[in-house]
Amino acid sequence: MSASQITLYIAASVDGFIADDEGGVEWLDEFEQDGENDDIVADYEEFFADIDCLVMGATTYEQILTFGEWPYGETPTYVLTHRDLSRATDTVTFVDGAVDSLATELEGEYEHIWLVGGAQLARDFLQQNLVDELRLSVIPVLLGSGISLFGADGETHRLQHVETTTYDAGIVELRYEVAT
User: Fold this and answer.
1) Between the CA atoms of 46, 67, 80 and 109, what dihedral angle is there, to the nearest 10 degrees?
2) What gap in Å lies between CA 136 and CA 139, rounded to an integer?
3) Which BP terms in the Gene Ontology apply to this protein (predicted)?
4) Nearest of 65, 66, 101 to residue 80 by alpha carbon
5) Helix (H/G/I), strand (E/B), else coil: 63
6) Residue 2 has what pLDDT?
7) 47 and 2 assigned to the same domain
8) Tens-place pLDDT, residues 109-159
9) From start to end of 108-169, where are the E strands?
10) What domain range is 34 assigned to?
11) Which of 110, 141, 159 is the last residue of a domain?
12) How many domains does the chain have?
């Protein structure tokens, strides 16, 4: 197996928020139902077809459960949590441990790992230099406040630009390699 890659692929408002003050993402609905998003859907499907497993925090997991049917099929999913949660599918595994231990374990088993979110988990992975690629979909909306993707941890992370893609719906995807 070739070297594993952990990709943080996430959407944020232009002002850097991934959710509103209550943790809601309803502001994304307009762009999901927009008739101009076929190009976005095709690129997402291409990305997801290459994914071997998912990693997310408990709050992100619980939010995804409210959307209806589990959107990730049988792709192995690891949820970091200290709580008892119900499993969406048999492929969901709950993990109560350190992100570096989980990353080491997953990199030994999977080639392409998608770090779905949320913000705190993304920050934890970044702080420990565990993210190889950042794909940030910038949504053309200013929320004004909410849950900040990167926060203010005071750490500098160098990024190497790989690609910028613009979509008809006004979304811009920035793709970077994360320098360690």
Assistant:
1) -30
2) 9
3) riboflavin biosynthetic process
4) 101
5) helix
6) 57
7) yes
8) 999 999 999 999 999 999 999 999 999 999 999 999 999 998 876 678 899
9) 112-117, 133-139, 147-148, 159-166
10) 1-51+132-180
11) 110
12) 2
Co-location of 33 and 20 in the same domain: yes
Q: What is the pLDDT of residues 51-87, one digit of tens each?
A: 999 999 999 999 999 988 999 999 999 999 999 999 9
Q: Name the residue among 119, 115, 116 with its Cα closest to residue 19.
A: 119
Q: Which amino acid is at 121?
A: L
Q: What is the 3-state secondary structure (H, E, C) of the chain?
A: CCCCEEEEEEEEECCCEEECCCCCCHHHHHHHCCCCCHHHHHHHHHHHHCCCEEEEEHHHHHHHHCCCCCCCCCCCEEEECCCCCCCCCCCEEEECCCHHHHHHHHHHHCCEEEEEECHHHHHHHHHCCCCCEEEEEEECCCCCCCEECCCCCCCCCCEEEEEEEECCCCCEEEEEEECC
